[in-house]
Amino acid sequence: MAEIHRQLLLFGAAELRRTAAGIPDRAGRRRELDRIAAASAVLGEPAEDDLAFSHSGLCQTCLPHARPASNDLIWERSSGRFHLMVSPGVMRGAGGRATRVGVPYGTRARLIMIFLQTEGVRSRTVSLGPSMSAWIRSLGLPVTGGPRGTIAAIREQSLRIARCEFTLQWNTRAEDGASETIIRDQRLVAGLSLWHGQEEGNGTRWQATVELTREFHEHLREHAVPLVRDAIAHLKDNSLGLDLYTLLAYRLQRLEQPLLLRWQALAAQVGSETGRTSHLAQRVRAVLPDVLAVYPDAQVEVVRHGLRLLPSRSPVPRSLVQGLRVVEGGTPPGPRGRRPR
Length: 341
Fold this sequence. Notes:
- Pfam families: RepA_C.
- It comes from Paracraurococcus ruber.
- The chain has 13 helices and 14 strands.
- It has helices at residues 3-11, 13-20, 26-43, 56-60, 106-122, 132-138, 150-163, 214-222, 229-234, 239-251, 263-270, 277-293, 318-322, and strands at residues 51-55, 75-79, 82-87, 90-92, 98-100, 125-127, 165-173, 179-186, 189-190, 209-212, 224-228, 259-262, 299-303, 306-310.
- The strands form five sheets. A four-stranded antiparallel beta sheet has the order 2-3-7-8.
- Strand 4 and strand 5 (98-100) form a beta hairpin.
């Protein structure tokens, strides 16, 4: 249990807020108050409506944190024998020529992906609500216009997600020592009508639903990792924080003994485009307190060469997930009924 949760149990949220109010730095004060609120929200046992989900492969790897230098880039990340490759899709642009739209990136793409997967665990047809504004609010974001507003960002990331192709590749090893390489090419959603939808009153009717592809929906239900919505909401403005939370939610409950996750290995999974491990280590140290605030049972220590992970309970009780008929903890991608060694 993180120190903030111990303090909450000992002194209560009101006392911690009074102490935080005395922090002279305004940004630091706000950050600490937000952390106290987030830690308080996740201390109780979540209900079924409080759950979110992500595919186990997408918990082990990540999308770009920032806009890639080129829309032609094929994004790659690896975790052991599992590899994720995201290929940008194409569409006919305003000039009448085919152009690549680029791979999804940043916090907005992550929130959209988690939303689609959370709803997709329950139904292949995902409802987005009565309007784009309502959908953006359901992602935990304010509705703002202009070139840098959330409406433009959500439209861009939605288009990138809809058009790109996710390649999942992993190696398995059988009892006799023989190895097998498995590759799955998957799109997440079928059709593009959603991504061209605009807010009512702009001449285009809002598309209230989107359908996941059959293959991704079936694979998702087999490999879904349960998360807590309040945790996602607290980390919604930090892409590395979201990546670390989903990685720990997948990894910690599967450990049988302590593991040193070295900075180089972590960079291959959730690192930025630069690949500088010193920069990644600095960013992890800064955001980890926020991640641990929303994952009370996570046992993680920052050491010189990386993160020391200890076996920990899932952020979601097993009983809540069993009713949804998904594999609690997210079975690693591989042939049905067999886990890679």
